[in-house]
Amino acid sequence: MARVRIAIRDLTKTFAAGTREVPAVSHASFDVHDKEFVAIVGPSGCGKSTILNMIGSLVAPSGGEILIDGVRVGPRPGPRVGYVFQKDTVFPWRTVAQNIALGLQYRGVATAEIRSQVTEAVALAGLEGFEDAFPATLSGGMRQRVALMRSLVVNPEILLMDEPFGALDTHTKLNLHAELLSLWGARQQTVVFVTHDLSEAITLADRIVVMTRRPGRVKLIYDVKLPRPRDVIRLRETAEYLREYGEIWHALGEEFQERVS
Amino acid sequence: MKDGRRSVWAWRLGILVVFLGAWEYLTGIKAISKTPGLYWIDPFFISRPSAIAQRFLYLTSDKVRLTLWQMALSTIQSTLWGFLVGISTGFAAGLLLGRSDRIARIFDPFIVAFNSLPRIALVPLITMIFGFGLLAKIVLAWSIVFFIVFFNTFQGARSVDADLIHSARFLGAGDGQIMRTVVVPSTLAWTFASLTPSISFALIGVVVGEFIGGESGGGLGYLIIQSLGTLNAADMMVALFVLGAIGIVMALGIRQIERRLLRWRPEYQRR
């Protein structure tokens, strides 16, 4: 087994809502290994995004700790960590090419080098011809592609993704799954991917962390045994996919049921 | 598209012609025929287009000591200076206070207090301090423009999307880079919304300054006050028309700059 990249130990978070303390995450522990694709699924409000935000230094834990490469996560994100938000965070005042170039500019990369890397990224994302378009003229799927390439172009070793395709229609989503898998296959980042969509988790991940309803605890960690490379469309017709889906669905279903009753 | 635009201009021209025509005609009908000086609508108060045009030609000729153009230039100059100084200081202050909760909390009551003062009430004081010239008019325009731009920029700087700042940080941006690439561009949209009202208010400040500035301040406000002294409605109308023209040109200029700087906004995108 590859070395542990992200270690989550006894992680707890309570939010203050007026005078009450609302527990969001309760004593969660799991590891993410190097070059591993881990998905976190759970009912809404289970604190899965909160865990991701704590890994990304956006939210401070109330208890427990997160270690990245053995070092405790501080108040600012490390340089090796990238983050793709669910919300559209493409800068509307920059063109597609200027958005993708952002991280390289911040790092002071030479202009010629930026240009060649951006050209490459634009081609990878299938955005040729839209380099000089402003985000206002793009579809949601294209904007999320820009956001993804913008994060990938600086080569983060760890990529945190918070329901990045949550707002997209099924067709666009499947296309982006295929693109994400091929990009990940080429660069092999360590990915933590939060989603409420179980099919998405099975399609993409090596392991799935299933959370309980609030306050979120780790209910079970499931190894996805589907072989790679995966065909995002055909995969769903295979017996293995359906069996794995059934098993995790059963565990998730218990959480939904308790909520309903 | 092109036809639509032409008909809009035709309508505008039509309205103008009808308005001026009615004005000219109605101020020419006598209430009692052959009795001089009694009109249905008395041109003494609102003058007539023909009289205004005559005065316009006279005031722009070299028969007067201070031509209309010189006065207009003085007004434009003071307005632009007040406007520019007002925008830059208002923008800087708005950005600073908008991004620092602590400084904003400290200064809040002072800003509210100063902004609630009617600026007109400051005119005598400003005149006392800065004299009757250009400087007083600029300060007056500045004192109005500053607050308009400041409040808009302040709101804009406060409402910068936190997730955009987070994304920039994840991409490796330092504080200065976040300021330049996230906060300033995102705030500019708010600042621009304040520029068109600012230019009108700058003009108000300047004209009021000219009302009491006397001849040494010059300007169109001086022409208006002087015409009041001689009960000359035609000259006043000349000054008002020129002021209106200046306002239109300046507003168009701002719209052009805005269109260039905010060309990323959805409303400027051709689909």
Q: Enter the CATH topology name of the largest domain in chain B.
A: MetI-like fold
Query: Considering the protein shown, what is the CATH homologous superfamily of the largest domain in chain B?
Result: MetI-like
The biggest beta sheet of chain B reads: none
Strand content of chain A: 25-35%
Radius of gyration of chain A: 19 Å
Summarize model confidence as the mean pLDDT of chain B.
89
Strand element count of chain B: 0
Q: CATH top level of the largest domain in chain B?
A: Mainly Alpha
Shape by Cα distribution of chain B: globular
Explain what this protein looks like in three dimensions.
The complex is a heterodimer of chains A (261) and B (271). Chain A is of the alpha/beta class. Chain A has 2 domains: 4-80 and 158-260, Rossmann fold (3-Layer(aba) Sandwich), CATH 3.40.50.300; 89-155, no CATH class. Chain A is 36% helix and 25% strand. Chain A contains 7 helices and 10 strands. A 6-stranded mixed beta sheet of chain A has the order 6-7-8-3-9-10, with helices on both faces. In chain A, strands 2-1-4-5 form a 4-stranded antiparallel beta sheet, covered by helices on one side. In chain A, strand 1 (4-17) and strand 2 (20-33) form a beta hairpin. In chain A, helix 2 packs across helix 3 (111-124) and helix 2 (96-106) packs parallel to helix 4. Chain A is globular. The N and C termini of chain A lie far apart (41 Å). The relative contact order of chain A is 0.17. The mean pLDDT of chain A is 91. Chain B folds into 2 domains: 1-46; 51-268, Orthogonal Bundle (MetI-like fold). Chain B is built from 12 helices and no strands. Chains A and B meet through strand 6, helix 2 and helix 4 of A and helix 8 and helix 9 of B.
